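Researcher: Batch entry, complex prediction.
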Amino acid sequence: MRGAYYSQTKLLRRNLIIYKEMTHLLLIKGDCLEVLPHIPNECIDLIITDPPYNIAEGAVPIYDTRYPKGKRRKIGLEAEWDKFTDEEFLRMMYKFIDEVYRILKPSGTFICFTSDRYLSYLRTYIRNKGMVYRQTCIWQKVNPVPQMRKVKFMHATEFFFLVHKEKGHDNFRWEHGQHPNVFYHPIVSGKERTGHPTQKPVWLFSELIKYTTREGDLILDPFLGSGTTLVAARNLNRNAIGIEINDEYINMAKRRVAPEQRDLFGNFEFYFHDWQTSSQAIISEFISKLQKPKSI
Ligand SMILES: C[S@@+](CC[C@H](N)C(=O)[O-])C[C@H]1O[C@@H](n2cnc3c(N)ncnc32)[C@H](O)[C@@H]1O
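Model: C-alpha cells for the complex:
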C-alpha cells in the first residue's frame, strides 16, 4: 500500500515536471530606447543586460579564429554601436536606467555589465533614483585574449553590478549556495561561439538568472546581441524578452534560441517581431500570455 502510494506520488511529480507551464520567449528587432517606453510599468522580474561599453575607439581588432588564416573576418570591437562620446554614452545609459526603474517590479533585480570607466557614474545615478546598488561583481576570464601590444597585462576581467529596485524583498535565491562575487569561467569557444564580438557565456548568464529569479518569472535583455540571455532563460524555464538592433545579431539569436521552434516536450514558444512593422501592443499581448507555474 505504502509502495503504491509512493509510486503514484512519483508518477504525479514526473507528470507535473513534464507538463510544466509553457515558457514564452519574445525577440524584437529594434532600438531598445524606442521599444522600452512601450513596456508596461512594474512587470519585469529581472533585467539582465550587456550594453555597449564605449571602448571600441582604438581597440585592437580580433579575428574570428573559427576560419583558416587568410579567410578570417574581423570581429573585434570596431563596431559602430560601441562608439559614443562620454556624454552621449552616459545620456543613453541614464535614459535606459530611467526605463529600468519604471518597468521593474518592486521586487525586481537589475544586472548590467559595463566597463570599469563608467561604474561610479552609473552607481551614483542608480542610487539617486532610489534603487539599492548591492555590489559590483567580476567575471574573471580564465583564458583571456593575449595582449597584442605587449604594453600591459591581459584584460581578464569584466565588471557587472547587481541592483535591487527596493529593499526588503525575497529576491536573492541564496538556496543555490554561497557564491563569491567573482565568477571564474572561460570566454566562449567552440560550438558555443557565434561570431558576435562580445558574446557572453551561457553558463555565466544561467548562474546569474538562477540566483535572481524563479521558474516562470519574466526576464528582459534590451541589448541582446547574439541571444545569450534568451538561451539561458529557455534552458531554465524563465519567460524572456530580448531586443536587438542589428540584423546580423538578430539572425544569430534566432538560430540559437529556436532552431526547431519548440523543445522536446513542446515546452517553449518563440515569437519574433520587427518593431518597425509590428503593432506596439505586442509586448502587452505577450505579457498577458504568461502564467506562473503552479508549485510542484
Ligand atoms: C555588448 S553586446 C551584447 C552581447 C550579448 N551579451 C551576447 O552574449 O551576445 C551589445 C549589443 O547591443 C546592441 N545594441 C546597441 N545599441 C542598441 C540599441 N539602442 N537597441 C538595441 N540593441 C542595441 C548591439 O548591436 C550589440 O549586439
